[in-house]
Amino acid sequence: MLTKVQGLIIRTVDMKESDRLVTLFTKEKGLITAIAKGARSLRSRQMSSTIQFCYGNYVLYQKGDLYWIKESELIESFFDLRSDLERLALAQYLCEVLSYITVETEEETLLRLSLNSLYAIASGKYDIDLVKAAFEIRASSIIGFMPDVMGCSACGAKDGDFFLDIMDGSLLCYECNSHRPSETPQVSDLGESRIVSLLSASARVAMMYCVHAPLERLFSFRIPPEDMTLFTRSCEDYLLHHIERSFKTLDFYKEVKH
Ligand SMILES: [Zn+2]
Questions:
Q1: Distance 212 CA to ligand 1 centre (A)
Q2: Torsions phi, psi of 184, nearest 5?
């Protein structure tokens, strides 16, 4: 039986002879692993549509437990991602994250978020740290960890500095946080029971935008340069905490980012 899927190739592994094992993030079935027979051969029609970051239509057939790619039709190759090491490294991180966050019923939204993010990175029109942060906090929201950053959870304040509780996604303003009974917060200290991240007023607004904006306008916001670090660090900490892992591709991105 043939299965038609539309998806993004997030990982490839070379196999014996000239076969290629590909991991697809598909709109219809989430993550799928499939073999592209002979795809590394120069004569193969599938050579250019089965490499990492290719987005396309794929016709699969199943033999035993495995899917095999019968036909493929490229929609977008994201070729420009390969022209710059930082962009390439960030795109690889996005793909690695995607391989750990499949949520049934949300595949199509996650795929749209990822494609929009890859377009934004490839275009060169955006600060790629901003794209990274927007992707991280929106992906967290889609998979069920939407932070409540409308204002202080105790008094409703919308101005001033805030503490974001990374674990439950709630905000406290500086004032309310200082009235907490026991402790002063341990900022980004993963060994403590309460993990908080500082958010300036502008960083809070940016995060709120990324959680709620239409996906097609996700990157159309600005944040003052002095608030950028608080914003990007909070988004990264938030995602990594909730999917409970670190990523080699993220370490590599930080290495090549100058
Ligand atoms: Zn408050």
A1: 22
A2: -85, 145
pLDDT in tens, 24-82: 999 999 999 999 987 777 777 777 888 999 999 999 999 888 899 999 999 999 999 99
Distance 233 CA to ligand 1 centre (A): 22
How far apart are alpha carbons 85 and 89 in whole angstroms? 6
**What domains are there in the chain, each with its CATH number?**
2-76 (2.40.50.140), 80-147+197-256 (1.20.1440)
103 CB neighbour count, 10 Å cutoff:
13
Report the greatest alpha carbon distance in the chain. Answer: 70
Its pTM surpasses 0.70 = yes
Residue by residue, DSSP assigns 106-133 as -HHHHHHHHHHHHHHHHHT-S-HHHHHH
Helix (H) or strand (E) holding 33: strand 30-36
Which residue type does 2 have? L
Instruction: Compute the distance from residue 163 Cα to the ligand 1 centre, in Å.
Output: 10
Task: Classify residue 79 by burial, with Cβ atoms within 10 Å: 0-12, 13-18, 19+.
Answer: exposed
Tokens at 231, concatenated: 């914003």
β-pairing, 195-199 vs 55-63, is unpaired
Q: CB neighbours (10 Å) of residue 40? A: 17
Residue 176, Cβ density class (10 Å: 0-12 exposed, 13-18 middle, ≥19 buried): middle
For 129, the 3-state DSSP assignment is helix
User: 158 CA to middle of ligand 1, Å?
Assistant: 9
Residue for token pair 């009974």: 181
Sort 18 into a burial class: Cβ within 10 Å, 0-12 / 13-18 / 19+.
middle
CA of 153 to the centre of ligand 1 (A): 7
